[in-house]
Amino acid sequence: MIKFGTDGWRAVIADEFTFENVSKLAQAVADYIKGVKTDANIVIGYDTRFLSDKFAERCAEVMAANGINVLLSDKPCSTPIVSFTIKMRKLFGGIMITASHNPPNFNGFKYKAEYAGPAEKDLTDKFESLIGKSPVKQMPIEKAKSSGLVKTRDLSKPWVEFIKGYIDFALIKKQNYSIVVDSMYGASGGFVAPFLESMGLKVTALHAERNPGFGGTAPEPIEKNLKDLLFVMKKGKYDLGIALDGDVDRVGIVRPDGVYMNAHLALSHIILHLSEDKKWKGAVVKTVALTFLIDRICEKNKIKLYETPVGFKHICKLMREEDILTGGEESGGFGFKNYVPERDGILAGLLILEMMAYRKKTLTQIIQETEKEYGKFCYKREDCEYPDEKKKTLFEGLKKDTPKKLAGVDVKEFSAKDGAKLIAKDGSWLLYRLSGTEPILRIYVEASSDARVAAIMKEAKTIAGI
Description:
CATH topology of the largest domain: Alpha-D-Glucose-1,6-Bisphosphate, Chain A, domain 3
Radius of gyration: 22 Å
Largest sheet: 6 strands, mixed
CATH class of the largest domain: Alpha Beta
Number of strands: 21
Oligomer: single chain
Number of helices: 16
Distance between the termini: 32 Å
């Protein structure tokens, strides 16, 4: 029943995500840890979901009973803070109780390895293989605390001090910015706005209170879920809107005029800021579903570019092996140099704000200048119901008989790196990917105009028989 996906195990609360199953998984993790290091220290954090604090305590009880020292967050915290704590304190690893951007009835279990990033598949496979191999051990939380095996701490304080040195807040403060932070009822609500206010920013906080139901909306910072933030930005006089998902590793950016800035544009501008404004060096990593604008930026600035399958673990691996400036996904999760190999939504938003301060321009002006220099990129994704019996036929057919044209333009390249991707000579592209958990076909299209995107999307559905 317990299977890890691209970043952790997630399941419906009280269905599969139960104290019994969490205890079994925690014991499996403890068995692995004890088999590698007898005097290990780990960190455990949790988000604002229903019973997340109690599930985190249960994990701490199991670890303590197995003789593993635990640093337990004393309040909801972010996934990047858990990863940062591993690096700062040189811990063996960490557990984060969160279902990230999933609907409110879900919860989840993420494991962060000693390198302070997402556990790779070989490690999560080991966890799965150890489930049920030994009986669950458990020490009551109060006893675990009194014995010193479990210590509770405010994990956000060291992270805040680090971010103060990473971002040029003195420069930002000179611009007298007024921003809106939408925590989407997630873990950032308790500490982000106070921190930014302490750094001289005028902050309006949205949905900062704890609400395990997330207002009836999944805490995913995409346009359709940000109606309140879009409305506030459009009606008020603010310089930037920043939306953060449930465990704060994804970001959504909103311009002063209430227009949503998608992840493609966000990462593109972060690359420009880090390379042109801050003069940092390093390669860039993008997944197959990200914009061709990144390719053009990297080509012009002579930046090495890697392309990976979807999933931040692929980016994390490169960040550990190569000199990587930044890397990211279409979902709004970005990682950065001189930090940890982990996504951080707050840091992404602050880098956009810092770019505005460096250039002394509004975000809208910066985007317009980028479009003028690199061209216009229009993007659309549709998730379509797709029966299992059609999947094999579609992908085998595309590989054997690749279309010669994409909505009238010659196809120059076909890639099966992650799904099936057709790239036309004009830079437009079409990507088919399958959901790993649902009968869903994801169709991604990018081109230089909305009309061409629509034409490619129409053709894509015809090819797929939708």
